[in-house]
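Example 3.2
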Amino acid sequence: MVTDDSVVVQTKDLTKQYGNQVAVNHLSFTLREGEIFGFLGPNGAGKTTTLLMLMGLTRPSSGEAVVCGLDPVRRAKDVKRIIGYMPENVGFYPELDAVQSLEYIAALNGIPESEARNKIDEFLELVGLKDEAYKKVANFSRGMKQRLGIAEVLIKDPKVLFLDEPTLGLDPEAALNLIDLIVRLKEEHNMTVLLSSHHLHQVQRMSDRVGIMINGTMVAQGTLDQLSKEKFGLGDKTYSLEEIYLKYFREG
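Structure, written as tokens:
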């Protein structure tokens, strides 16, 4: 395993098997500080299972994983303290407003009330919900809930974000707003992001590198240029992530 300080997440031959079904098959990849890594693949490809192993929520059958220098199997609680995870469907208490929701998350993370107040103001402004601070979450659109979800995971100052289908179900404008927010987190706050998604054009807008999972196996990883050259060879044409993905998928 790499000992470089810039490495935030690393796996080596990470494998998860349920009976005879292999969900993740000898997965090896590295995520570096300040990088957005797009984790691609169809349903059942092993993306969410990988995230669960990285968070210590399920044990690998074999192989290794390190998150910020910590083993998620042996130090699951410590790993959970330093990551921010936003699942596909973010849950909220609908009777609370945005401020109350963040106060609750801050209290769960042991953040002092005076410190939490400053963080709440900062992150509501960052995610564009400052004017909706005292609006009940029950009245939020899905896009607003997703942005509030980002604020919730940022409240504990995570070293890395794990985002599972963050734009799922959003209309085009809301999706673009969330994409812009994720890119700003990287550019302005040097945030490291592991992003799982089906939406290839959105991943292309955000990611520095991508990995393609098919049937539990990482069949390719690299920059768009690297994957384009690998599948289509040298040439003047620029290929989209969708074209590259479909080429790998059909041959995978």
